[in-house]
Design goal:
Blueprint lengths: L2 E6 L3 H16 L3 E2 L8 E6 L4 H20 L4 E6 H5 L4 H4 L5 E3 L7 H9 L4 E3 L20 E5 L1 E2 L10 H5 L3 E2 L2 H13 L4 E5 L8 H4 L4 H11 L4 E4 L9 H9 L3 E6 L7 H7 L5 H14 L4 E8 L6 H14 L3 E6 L17 H26 L3 E10 L4 E6 L10 E4 L9 E9 L4 E8 L1
Parallel strand pairs: 1-2, 1-3, 3-4, 4-5, 5-6, 7-10, 10-11, 11-12, 12-13, 13-14, 17-19
Antiparallel strand pairs: 8-9, 15-16, 15-18, 16-17, 18-19
Helix pairs in contact: 7-9, 9-10, 13-14
Length: 443
């Protein structure tokens, strides 16, 4: 039985694609192995969003290529965003690669493996906007948590972003299909369902003629008993009153919202082609805080966008202090080929970008420290994720902590708490982005 290894890079949406390919190969009779050194074929599901992600993808291909000379490896298959974006260059620039699949061709993975085993090169770039949405998966996340992709592609057309050209126009999955998958995940033991898309708040507009995320959440809530449902990647200009009401009133929809702002200067927002002004962003944040008491807000911003002045950057820093996002991340601007922003004048040098990034994240660290201190003495519901033998402590996440991107809560207990259990933890200490506490009771 041929052994297949996987390297999955980039975002959670890419991870779901990896899980679909894993299932297709498993059903075809291949053995999936966790260690690269055991594999005869390695699939690298690449990211191509920004320069650092592209370099990481290339480095991973080159790393596993070493096994062709020094291990059992017979072939490398590149899939994902980098493969789609540089389809004409992959074979030429990386001769180590034996097969390439674009973002519309994930379901061709078995054919690609078969071709490589025959000693043939293989490539497939099917229409990404006609590719099947969803599919059976082999979960790679801990059994208590899973991502559920509700749409593919993006229609926002931000000037810095290559995703629409890589992934195509936004295509929502039907509610009944998503609910059916949610029920399957519940049967597997999933207790936290993370809904993802390039823009979840736009869900349903293409097939139902209206924003339908709140309706989708209600159906998942009605048809399953999954205790935690989390929304990721919701844009501030599409957060409806109906969705806010659902966040407020649905006890199983976590009071957590990921709202990427990317900037707060109107001049920069316009240059980015972001939908929504500084005023809209401010009002959205204020409304969410007012209507959903206790909500955790996560956001992201880009620093060093072409033409960003000191005044623009200072406005962004001031807003981060003012908004007090509980969770926040930043990126330095990366000029991407084929995007309008890459052709803009007044491109900033890398040192200026890095300096601004450091200042912004230091600003957020001060905010996080302040918010962390406020949590001391409070008791939170925590989803246990494991036990750190070296540190001799349990760890998990609260309702305000999304997997992979947010912090952890470390906690002590008189007995071992299994992963996937809910416990009540009283917070005793705040670290930079994490919390420390002790169990008061198990749910």
């Amino acid at each position: 039985m041929t052994k297949i290894g996987f390297v999955s890079l980039g975002c959670a949406k890419n991870l779901v694609d990896t899980e679909v390919m894993l299932r297709l190969l498993y059903d075809a009779g291949y053995e999936i192995v966790p260690e690269d050194t055991e594999a005869e074929i390695i699939v690298v599901n690449t990211c191509g969003f920004i320069e650092s992600a592209k370099q990481e993808s290339i480095d991973n291909v080159l790393d596993v290529a070493w096994l062709k000379k020094h291990g059992k490896l017979r072939g490398i298959i590149a899939t994902g965003c980098l493969a789609e974006r540089y389809r004409d260059e992959i074979f030429r620039e990386m001769p180590e690669v034996d097969a390439v699949l674009g973002t519309g061709s994930y379901h061709e993975i078995v054919r690609a493996v078969e071709a490589v085993l025959r000693g043939e090169r293989f490539s497939s770039y099917l229409d990404k906007e006609a590719a099947p949405l969803g599919g059976e998966r082999c979960l790679t996340t801990p059994e208590h948590t899973a991502y559920l992709k509700i749409a593919e592609g993006c229609d926002n057309r931000c000037t810095y972003c290559a995703i629409p050209s890589i992934r195509g126009r936004m295509r929502s999955r039907k509610i009944e299909e998503i609910v059916a998958e949610a029920k399957e995940l519940e049967a597997l033991g999933v207790k936290e369902l993370n809904l993802i898309a390039q823009d979840t708040s736009r869900y349903g507009l293409d097939i139902y003629g209206e924003y339908s995320l709140a309706r989708l959440v209600r159906e998942i809530t009605r048809e399953t008993s999954i205790p935690w449902i989390r929304l990721l990647y919701s844009y501030p200009d599409k957060i409806t009153d109906e969705l806010i009401a659902e966040l407020r009133d649905n006890p199983r929809l976590l009071k957590y919202m990921d709202v990427p702002i990317q900037h707060i200067s109107d001049r920069i927002l316009t240059a980015m082609n972001r939908h929504g002004s500084s005023e809209l962003i401010r009002k959205t944040v204020e409304k969410l805080r007012r209507e959903v008491p206790g909500i955790t807000l996560r956001s992201t911003a880009i620093v060093g966008f072409p033409g960003e002045t000191d005044a623009d950057f200072e406005e962004l820093c001031a807003f981060i202090k003012e908004a007090k996002f509980e969770r926040f991340g930043a990126f330095t601007y990366s000029p991407e080929e084929g995007t309008p922003a890459a052709e803009l004048p007044d491109q900033l040098d890398e040192q200026t970008k890095q300096d601004r990034y450091d200042i912004l994240m230091q600003t957020q660290l001060s905010v996080a420290e302040e918010l962390g201190i406020r949590m001391v003495g409070k008791t939170l519901t925590v989803l246990s994720e494991g036990y750190d033998v070296v540190a001799e402590t349990h760890y998990g996440r609260g309702e305000g902590d999304a997997p992979d991107v947010d912090g952890r809560i470390y906690f002590s207990s008189k007995k071992r708490i299994p992963a996937g259990s809910f416990v009540r933890v009283r917070i005793t200490e705040a670290l930079d982005y994490d919390l420390v506490g002790e169990v008061t009771e198990e749910d």
